[in-house]
Design brief:
By secondary structure, the chain is of the alpha+beta class. 41% of the residues lie in helices and 21% in strands.
Length: 233
């Protein structure tokens, strides 16, 4: 019997998990038959599906997510990419864009590229929230040390941030380092998401709850995260 894991992305055999559209943990329904994309051939049993695509609909927002699974039922790709479009509007646009691109790479199994983009998100976070010394530092590791010493980067996040910087370098220079594993790339995605939540989303929500954050529509074209906003505090 297949156990359901609400923290993993949905598949036909485990139709629970986070929705790439609305971000909620949800149940998913498959409303039509899966389609075979590729086949394997075996002299004893003949041809059988290798990769299949299914569309699963979120019980919350009712939007469909395309899921590609292999012949063991394991998910190998999702569209839209998990994490895209569900960040708070107060997240720095550069940080959000790099995180989303990293999640797209992760959903396609491009783990080195994902590590590079998650490192880029961290670099853009430094440029957005770091001191002048941190922003002016050429090397990310030294810039992060400035933020740690300044009290901007919480000590509990330092080791993670330093590890992210190292793995991002490995992704950008694979000839000098080992390959990035799926587990490492997924771990980096969780760290960057937690950093975004702690540094941007929770402070913004606190201001909203206190009535100190007013968002109004901007006339500029919207980003991949929905509506663009200007803020009055």
């Amino acid at each position: 019997m297949t156990s359901h894991n609400p923290d993993s992305l949905p598949t036909p055999s485990d139709p629970t998990g986070p929705c790439p559209w609305c971000g909620r943990i949800s149940n998913f329904a498959k409303r039509q038959q899966s389609q075979s994309l590729t086949e394997l051939h075996n002299a004893a049993v003949g041809s059988y599906p290798d990769l299949r695509v299914s569309v699963l609909h979120c019980a919350g927002c009712d939007k469909g997510t395309a899921v590609i699974t292999n012949n063991s039922g394991t998910g190998v790709m999702w569209w839209p990419a998990p994490g895209a479009g569900i960040l708070d509007s107060q997240v720095d646009k550069g940080v959000a864009s790099a995180y989303d691109e990293g999640m797209k790479c992760l959903s396609m199994g491009a783990y080195r590229s994902a590590a590079v983009m998650f490192r880029s998100a961290l670099h853009l976070y430094v440029k957005d929230r770091g001191s002048l010394a941190a922003q002016g530092e050429r090397h990310l590791k030294v810039a992060l040390k400035h933020m740690k010493n300044d009290g901007v980067l919480h000590g509990s996040l330092w080791d993670w941030a330093d590890r992210l910087n190292q793995l991002g370098n490995e992704g950008a220079h694979p000839e000098d380092y080992d390959d990035i594993t799926q587990a490492e790339a997924e771990g980096l995605s969780k760290f960057v998401r937690q950093l975004i939540r702690l540094e941007y989303e929770m402070p913004a929500q606190l201001l909203r709850d206190q009535g100190l954050l007013q968002e109004v529509e901007d006339q500029q074209p919207s980003s991949s995260h929905g509506d663009s906003t200007s803020v009055r505090v």
